[in-house]
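Annex B. Sample input.
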Amino acid sequence: MRKEYDFSDSIRNPYAKHLKKQVTLRLNTDAVTYFKSLARETGVPYQNLINLYLTECAHSGKRLALKWAS
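Annex B, continued. Sample output.
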């Protein structure tokens, strides 16, 4: 390895805005079981499936129909 590197001609990563961010979520067991069974069927890790589904919801603007008891 060199002692010093010259980054004066470097450019920013154009894909940096597409990187993932680690977060902690509390999911109910039904949701985890569903995505794990889907993962076994498809061969795609369940975390990736959850991410794909949430990304699709975000891009399509899908909203939950919540009704709070009054």
